[in-house]
From TrEMBL:
A Pfam family per the record: BPD_transp_1
InterPro entries, alphabetized: MetI-like, MetI-like_sf
Annotated ABC transmembrane type-1 domain residues: 69-268
Cellular component, GO, one term: plasma membrane
Protein name: Maltose ABC transporter permease
Signal sequence region: none
TM stretches of this protein: 12-34, 73-97, 109-128, 140-160, 181-206, 262-283
SUPFAM superfamilies xrefs: MetI-like
Amino acid sequence: MKQSTSEKVGQLLIVLLLILLCVSVLYPFLYMLAISLNVGSDAAKGGVYLWPRKFTLYNFQVVLGNSVIQHSYLITIARTIIGTVSGLLITLLAAFGLSYRVLPLRRTLLGYVLITMLFNGGLIPFYIQLHELSLLNSFWVYIVPSAFSAWNMFVMMKFIQGIPDALVESAEIDGAHPFRVLWSIILPLSKPMLAALGLFTGVFHWNDWFAGAFFISDQNLIPVQTFLQQLLSAQDMSTVLGSNNNIEALARGSMMANVTLMSIKMAVVMVSALPILCVYPFLQKYFVKGVLIGSVKG
């Protein structure tokens, strides 16, 4: 069908708007990448925007050779894996149980979960609760409080309720118990939704700095995002270098004369952001499919 002039102009404006949006999103990332790959002393002179003027990997060598960053990276990876797996497991089990309409007190339980989704006691009562549970200054403060998400549970429950009842009923007639139904029918059909929720949960755990900043005082337990938050407010290189022997060896070399605090900050930003950006394309097809299915079923 032939488009009118107004429709062509409208589409052109939409394309230009999307291009402008993409540029506004990509430019800060490319700028930080250029600074992280540029000699720090040269970047401090200005004029580096999209491409490094004097290419170097010294900034990443300093960052990846720092024992503090290495340990915070391990904390973040462990937190993301354990937190995502436990969150999906609890969400799936809760959603599957509450999807049974004959479950006793089902409406009461759903109402209770909904209340926790809409209201909370605030930060101070939450802090006191973590203290009473002995979770403060512990690795499990990253896992236990966020192991259950009411929103994820409701989305998952709506998806499970959209699965034809005939599949579940046929399995139950054949003698399958609920866990068999969950493993053989619900779980295989829920992979797109689990991938979407897993991506949400994983990104949350990877990007969260708040818990490490307020609930952890042991520097050996902070995640990389909390370290980055501390680094961005640092005024000297001591926060970055610490007491790592390898870094001290670098500091005695000529390369450290070309490294600045800003170049180190940009390198840490890249190191903390690139892994999740590399994982996202592999889950994108499941993410889009899961979101579309959830929107239709909801």
